[in-house]
Amino acid sequence: SLGDRLGGVFDRLRGRGALTEADVRGAMREVRIALLEADVALPVARDFVDKITEAAVGQQVLRSVTPGQQVVKIVNDALVEMLGGDSAELEIGVTPPAVVMLVGLQGSGKTTTTAKLARLLRKQGKKVMMASLDVNRPAAQEQLTVLGTQAEVATLPIVEGQQPVEIARRALQSAKLQGYDVVMLDTAGRLHVDQALMAEMQAVADIARPNEILLVVDSLTGQDAVNVARNFSDQVPLTGVILTRMDGDARGGAALSMRAVTGKPIKFAGVGEKLDAIEPFHPKRVAGRILGMGDVVSLVEKAAEAIQADDAEKMAARLAKGQFDMNDLRNQLAQMRRMGGIGALAGMIPGMKKAQAAMASSNVDERVLLRMDAMIGSMTPKERAKPELLNAKRKIRVAKGSGTTVQDVNKLLKMHQEMSTAMKRIKKMGGIKGLAAMLG
Ligand code: GDP
Ligand code: MG
């Protein structure tokens, strides 16, 4: 698995603090192979890897997980973000009838999916009509009628010899007359993308003005998925994608390709031949499938939680003694950086909250936090334990050592002073137990 491969790459890295560019590049070679094995299209895999390489470099490796596991988590999070974010809802809350059109290659699952969606909408209380525009394949229209009976959804009566555009027009007219909420248009496919098919899709879209044009793609399509998606996406104004046969042994790679090429949300996943075998698309599940690493991801999540609890406990022990020196401040700063915000424990404490709010409002970004860290790094151990030792001369030394100014050092000392005062106040109130009682 990807985990085993990454283990090898990262063995020599164990116990080190941050991921370096060279380390991440090594790991990303393995990630790229994993993506390709999951059928993610090559250019998509390449782009994706470039993007996360940048994001991963410099990230801290948590204790109790290996750097390889940490990288898996980073990759996983990036996958989920790329695959998701959008809801599976269909845009059918318009003045009825809403028009939903399904397009895609032959055999991708359009007709089945049309019936599945129609059934779903009927169960939500919508009055739905389906129409087959497939005049190419013999008995294609009858197939939809049969499915309509199973799904208890109306189908437009078949009129021999009508062309797709005429059928679409007739479907819209009768839906309007009979008060349907939704008209679903099932279209013809081809074995390969061809110009005649695209022209037909465009002509239908022009007269039906669909609220949704959904590209139906077989998730087993593999590397070719990108070409299919690009062709349809270039020529028909897609609003979303539906991936079928996710119940097969597909490893979900097509999902990433589809999302990357069309830029449109994946709204549903087909998970079987039966009419109820459709579900909203779950980015987390699919990301886990692509990497085959669901367990590792939750392990790293737990480790991240544990480490925060661990820090909080240590901090609490010192708080109980009313202690707060520069080392404590440094830990707080590191925690803020890690969490991209206010430290967990600190945020709970009244006095600290104020001091940290002041930090937050004074525009404490990553750079400022790093500068503070550099200042504390330029202090001697004695100065860190007893900041009051810092006289004018020592301040100049610290400023020089950290590439800052004496003013910056003064600001840091003031912040430490405020936080330290808050700690003493807490001690007076009976230490952390008293605080807990007060909060509790
Ligand atoms: P169309 O040519 O795009 O209209 O494709 P069809 O809807 O006729 O489907 C082709 C075949 O794929 C049929 O045998 C369907 O039962 C099957 N099929 C469609 N969706 C799924 C799915 O999500 N899972 C599985 N296992 N089979 C599916
Ligand atoms: Mg069909």
UniProtKB/TrEMBL annotation:
Gene3D superfamilies per the record? P-loop containing nucleotide triphosphate hydrolases, Signal recognition particle SRP54, nucleotide-binding domain, Signal recognition particle, SRP54 subunit, M-domain
The EC number on file is: 3.6.5.4
One Pfam entry for this protein is SRP54_N
Where is GTP annotated to bind?
A: 104-111, 186-190, 244-247
Gene Ontology terms: cellular component: plasma membrane; signal recognition particle
Provide the protein's localization: Cell inner membrane; Cytoplasm
Give one GO term, molecular function aspect.
7S RNA binding
Q: Enumerate the spans annotated as SRP54-type proteins GTP-binding domain.
A: 265-278
Its UniProt entry gives the catalysed reaction(s) as: GTP + H2O = GDP + phosphate + H(+)
Q: Which UniProt keywords apply?
A: Cytoplasm, GTP-binding, Hydrolase, Nucleotide-binding, Ribonucleoprotein, RNA-binding, Signal recognition particle
Which GO terms of type biological process are on file?
SRP-dependent cotranslational protein targeting to membrane
Q: Which family does it belong to?
A: Belongs to the GTP-binding SRP family. SRP54 subfamily.
Tell me, how does this one assemble? Part of the signal recognition particle protein translocation system, which is composed of SRP and FtsY. SRP is a ribonucleoprotein composed of Ffh and a 4.5S RNA molecule.
User: What protein name applies here?
Assistant: Signal recognition particle protein
Q: Which gene encodes it?
A: ffh
